[in-house]
Structures are given as C-alpha cells and as structure tokens.
Design a protein that fits this description.
Blueprint lengths: L2 E7 L3 E7 L5 E8 L4 H16 L6 E7 L11 E2 L2 H12 L5 E5 L4 E6 L5 E6 L8 H10 L7 H5 L13 H13 L4 H22 L6 E4 L6 H10 L4 E2 L9 H20 L1
Parallel strand pairs: 1-4, 4-5, 6-9, 9-10
Antiparallel strand pairs: 1-2, 2-3, 6-7, 7-8
Length: 267
Amino acid sequence: MSYVIGVDVGSTYTKAVILSPEKEVVGHAMTATGFKLDKASEKVFDKILKDSGLAKDEIGYAISTGYGRHMVPYRDITVTDLTATARGSHYFFPDTRTVLDIGGQTMKASRLDEKVKVKSFRLNDKCAAGTGAFLEKTARYMGYETEEIGPLVQTSKDDVPISGVCAVFAESEVINQLSLGSAPSDIMHGAMSSLVKRAIQLLKRVKMESQITLTGGIMRFKTMVDVLTENVEEKINVPKGEMVQFTTALGAATLALQRLEKIKAEA
C-alpha cells in the first residue's frame, strides 16, 4: 500500500495519476466523464491499474478533485481543483506563481504564494465562449472533430477576428466568415485568439506574477500556447506532452502522498 492516486473528475474528461513513494509518475489514464460520474471514476481506476500493472491493494491513499470529486466511491478525501492544480503546477515548475487552467467547461486563473497556497483566483463567467467548448463548437460548425483542431490551426496564415461574445452566436460568425472565403484554419486561429483575450483578462484580475504555468486540455494545442506567450510578458511554462491534461490529477496525487506519509509517521 505504498502507491497513491489522484483522480480529477472533470465535466468533460476524468483523469487519474498514480505516484510512487519516490514521487514518480507510474501511471496515468483518462476517460470521458459522461453523466455517470461514479462510473467514470471507477472506469479510469480500473484502466490505470491495468496499464501500470498494479493491484487495488497496492494503492494506499486516494484523493479526488474536480467537478465530480464527491462522486468517487474509493476516495479517502477530496480537495478543490484550485488546490490540486496549484500542487500539480508546482510539481512540474517549483517557481510557479500564477496558474491558468482552461478546461472543457471552465477557465480558471489563480495566484499562488511561496507555500503553494492560492492567494487569489478568478473564474470565467458562465459562458462556453471562455472555455475549450468554444473551440470544439467552432470546429464542429466547420465539419472538424476535436482531434483535428491542432493540425488544422497549424496551417493558419492569419487569424480571422471572432468576437467570442457567446459560443451560441459563434456559428453565425463562422458561417459568415466561410461565405467570405476565409480559411477554416484562420477562423480557428481567430477563435483561439478570442479565448486568449478572455484568459488575459482573468490573469490581470488575479494580478499575475511570474512564473505562469498553463494547464488543461486546450494547452496541448501549440498555437494556443504561442498566442498566449505573444501576449503575456511573464515567463510561461507548459507541462510536456499530454501531461498538461493531467496536472490537476497529479496535484491530488502529491497531496495523497503527503497524507499517506503522515499517517505512516503517526502509526
């Protein structure tokens, strides 16, 4: 019972990370959340155990986080996603002072102190135009799947202005731009630029400090990171590869490891 697991039940995807006693990532897995949050958390648990070759009784502690954190049946405790994301960002980049997390349904910016505590935070308003769903809807309007967004926008020559006032109204903007002969790649680039403007507003509201760490599935798109980097003067960090999507689950796992070590010390 030396390993720990962090489970992030997001509105779109459920992610899990297993850490060893040496704080090494020994496994990570992801599944669509759907409507049955408990089933999604059990599915990702079974998957990560199979992929890592571990048995259930080798997991000594579990912490859940995210939108559906209270629906994880095997959890020991829960923590907020703000706390978990701060810890995960610190794991990758110890000098992190500001975190920007863009998920499928939410955008969050937070400023941390030297003890990795959240000093201030801001969330986007209740509108998909400030989340990853905005990009997914824009892509679908043009006949592309989510996994095609990255390759599509990489071919962009320029960005077409998209107001991003509301994801519902984005369809008419996309149709209008297509009728004007705008390239789908440039329209997608414009949608990303619109998202970046909202992100920068949140960062300013938390009084961002260097270094800034970017997390969330949207950050796997290079163009998104490039546009943010061009518009922010502070140093920006991004976890490598797909781990950018697992930062929050990883943060929960690091906290689980701390709790397990404390329990063993007190035994």
